[in-house]
Amino acid sequence: MSRNGKSMPMYAQIREYLLDGIEGGTWSGEEKLPSENELAEKFGVSRITIKKALDGLVEEGIVYRIQGKGSFVSENGKPRLYASERLQHRKSFVWLLMPRVNNLFTSSILRGVERTLDGAGCKLMFSSTDDSPEKEKELLAEALELGVSGVIVYPAVGEAYNEDILRMALSPFPVVIIDRYLRGFETNCVCTDNVQSSYEAVKYLLELGHRSIAFVSTPVEGTTSLEDRLTGYEKALSEHLIPVDRSLIVEPFDEEKMERLLKEQPRITAVFACNNDIGLRVIRAAEKAGRSIPEELSVLFFDDFENSEWFRIPPSCVVQRPEAIGREAASMMLRLIENPGAPRQRVSLPAKLVVRESTSAPPGTTKTTV
Q1: What pLDDT, in 10s, does the model give residues 243-264?
Q2: Range of the domain at 200
């Protein structure tokens, strides 16, 4: 199969096997595919798994079924839904789906997308999914119904495999994913290099002298950007020969739990938070626990916020490049509209560590607020 099978659900591996066969000419238009029983025996799985793999191909129009006879490849072996003639009259419309636009990061992404598309004479349609996978699914279906030229999507939080995004991303239809990627699949996506950015942030805390550093986050599993930030945290500890203490990984974040942890674990001298909302709540929990920032606890987090330098404790943070992410996603989309068959690519942009007043050397060492 063409992609890393170990990271893919079994039904997705079988889907890829069938797609590779159709695209490679093993099965041509109107030709019958192996039966469900034959495929189940070949892969050592149940017919339910085979049916799930075939259902997606049928839904896309790549395969059709005839009751009592089996599954057949559509006439041209391509999804009817994504037929190029459907898109010809809508070349100038791109739909952007995002969970929300309520902070500096998301609003800057929107600005980057809009300016780039506008400069190319392409119109932008925007919808918020409110971080709801159900609403996201409905909007994706509506985008296809309207026949837009392409979709840029910032997935809802916690999505490992949204089948609708996956089907679109693996088809000829132009799709660009923002902020994360789908593990095990080659998709067009633009995101921050979260592993390296987190590694550099935690390395900075280690170089200040911290050895007990907590990692706090919203639920990590299923959101590749958060998974990669945790990987960067673990990588920095490992390179400094510090074992990863799972009791210091707090997810999902709870402010009261954080306050108790800081009271009960005075050995914790630094916290690395996955975003600015949680970072600010860590500062509040620390103050409730009687820990002064940065004298008794250093706090560093992902993402800046407006006028942060005027905050009562100007925070040290990892600053992403959201407008650049938006520009790159829009540029990638324009290239895909011109050439839907272009090789898929993943673009990772570097972030910048900005050191302010929420971090310093741990208690008992030479005081250094960098």
Answers
A1: 999 999 999 999 999 999 999 9
A2: 194-320
